[in-house]
Amino acid sequence: MGTIKIMPCLDMKDGRVVKGINFVNLQDAGDPVENAKFYQSEGADELAMLDIAATLENRKNRLEWVQSVAAVITIPLTVGGGIASLEDIQLTLSAGASKVSMNSAAVKDPALIKNAAREFGSERITVAVDARRNKEMPSGFELVVSGGTKPVGKDAIVWARECQDLGAGTILPTSMDGDGTRAGYDLEFTKAIADAVTVPVVASGGAGTLEHFYDGVVKGGAQVLLAASVFHFRTFRIREVKEYLRSRGLRVDL
Fold first, then answer.
1. Active site residues per annotation
2. Would you say 37 and 30 are in contact if contact means Cβ atoms under 8 Å apart?
3. Tens digits of per-residue pLDDT, 114-132?
4. Of the CATH numbers 3.20.20.70, 2.60.120.260, 1.20.1070.10, 3.30.70.3270, which one belongs to the domain with range 5-247?
């Protein structure tokens, strides 16, 4: 097991950071630039920035948001939301993103993953896999798109493996059942993805206690731990999380 990374996530809407529960009931969580600066100073290893309304509003990612955040940090920035073409990826990377995260567009056109990995390198391509429980699926998890509003009728674990085969360098699974609840990562879902792929997996959705972070690695198999609510509302400091993980025997950079 390598060094575990902590990745705060800025969910963006109307130019502000927001946070919801199960993808709805959004609360304001501050200014993205101030948040980004704060998280880097706190010791974040990476930062995620997701334009959560882009796909639903049928528009591109707001590049000015990317530029303003990228300008104040030096840690890697993963940007997602509304990225649907090679041109979108090029523009987002040019605006300062280190990596892009795709979801709905990749499901619609899997060749986009392959072409993007070939053009920009697998290490810059993350595929977000959103799912919810559905007993009809072989793994018990059904892929959903459009901010969790549309079930696809496809097994989420099978899809994650396909994404890796197509060239995705990172898989970012989020369980709609756990998002924003602070009840812990959906370890069953995260582990199923981690067991199915060999690329890094980002645990996402639901971290609420220090133990949840530890479980994301040990029980969920994740190498990167993404969280939003607990950092935005200052439940925990990033260093506090890292010191806890280190005290439990995991490798982190303090």
1. 11, 130
2. no
3. 999 999 999 999 999 999 9
4. 3.20.20.70
